[in-house]
Specification:
alpha/beta; 9 helices; about 35% helix
Length: about 240
């Protein structure tokens, strides 16, 4: 199986701080890859490099058979097929939920309003948000806003979905609903790269887990391998703190 999304020796530096130090990543279609590690380990920066929000300083990123770090590539064209959801929901506060979800398909994909609204309504219904469609984001709970952000990304029909700590900003009582939405996406075969602090969830859903520390992938393997029998002492120390 050829990888849908790959990072090859990716390096990213801010000033004199090396955030990513030659990271390799390979994501097959329909697989879920979870990035774990402490805050500041490079997980979010890696995701931002994968969707070209950050320019890599060295290395290559390949998506759907093409090198997207080639300077001749149309960045906006690439991003149409890479959905991204951040921990800070980033919904447009002056627009209704329905308008938030349909904006991309209409303006970027060229969908007719009626078609975009029909698909958006179906997605909102699927994620238990149909009755929120006409409301503005500030009328929703944090968990509802995060699910709207996921729906907005899905409305673009991406080939891969990047999730950056999507539960970190939520009250613990609201985390479950968002994680359940991700479970459903995995069950349907969505390709996902997810940075998360939810260790038990990563253990449950991931086809592969990467443990990052200080911009380096210290360990990679199946969820069973990484969580049950990690080989690197840094991984063992991290999991001892976070699985206790």
């Amino acid at each position: 199986m050829s990888a849908l999304l790959e990072a090859r020796g990716v390096r990213k530096t801010y000033g004199d701080h090396d955030v990513l130090k030659g990271v390799d990543l390979s994501v097959d279609t329909h697989h879920v890859v979870c990035l774990i590690g402490a805050s500041g380990s490079g997980k979010s920066t890696l995701l931002r490099c994968l969707n070209l929000l950050e320019v890599v300083d060295d290395g290559e990123i390949w998506f759907d058979g093409a090198e997207i770090t080639d300077p001749r590539v149309d960045v906006d064209d690439v991003r149409r097929d890479i959905g991204t959801v951040f921990q800070a929901f980033n919904l447009f506060p002056h627009m209704s939920v329905l308008d938030n979800v349909t904006l991309g398909p209409r303006k970027v994909r060229g969908a007719r309003r009626g078609d975009a609204e029909e698909r958006a309504t179906a997605l909102l219904t699927r994620f238990g948000l149909a009755d929120q469609a006409r409301k503005h984001p500030d009328a929703l709970s944090g968990g509802q806003q995060q699910r709207v952000a996921i729906v907005r990304a899905l409305a673009m029909e991406p080939k891969v979905l990047l999730l950056d700590e999507v539960t970190s900003a939520l009250d613990p009582m609201l985390v479950g609903g968002v994680l359940e939405a991700v479970r459903e996406l995995k069950a349907e075969g969505m390709t996902i790269v997810m940075a998360t602090h939810e260790m038990q969830f990563a253990r449950e859903v991931a086809d592969e887990v990467l443990f990052l520390e200080s911009g380096v992938v210290c360990e990679r393997g199946t969820a069973e391998q990484v969580f049950t029998d990690p080989s690197d002492p840094r991984t063992r120390e991290f999991l001892a703190r976070h699985l206790a």
